[in-house]
# Entry
Amino acid sequence: AVVLCAYLEMEGIDLRDQSVIELGAGTGLLGIVVTLLGTKEPAGVRALYSTCCAQVTITDRAAALEFLESNVQANLPPELRPRAVVKELTWGKDLDNFPAGAFDFILGADIVYLEETFVELLQTLEHLCSERTVILLSCRIRYERDLKFLKMLRERFSVSEVHYD
# Structure
């Protein structure tokens, strides 16, 4: 999550007025940072008019939601809390609770680790994105199964890799 947060900030990804969903949020760090970044002007850009903030949906399984919600409440200023919505999402299940293709960005940090979830994760990504959606996933490639996921991802999406030392 820290690596993806740093990437979003260092690359100056403009999240203002964007619809963003985070998958498998855990503590919510990434979603919280995205909410904050979604209110900032990119470096070197002076706003000529007022722009809206990012709308961020932070998701995880039911068991993680109470902790996730408490982190969002504790770490976002009150005026930004309505911009970050915590929702339950188990990959591959009840996807019609989320509008198909409605997100500009889909984010996930360290969510590629259980091979038995790969098919459901890909199904979820396909449901949530449109042709204009950017999916940003950060993970450490450790095992053969991680490479298998990348192969499955490349079969369905255009994939570019950003490597960190």
Notes: The chain has one domain: 1-38+52-155. Residues 92 and 159 are 21 Å apart (CA to CA). Confidence is low (pLDDT under 50) at residues 44-50. The helical segments are 2-10, 29-37, 65-75, 118-128, 144-156.
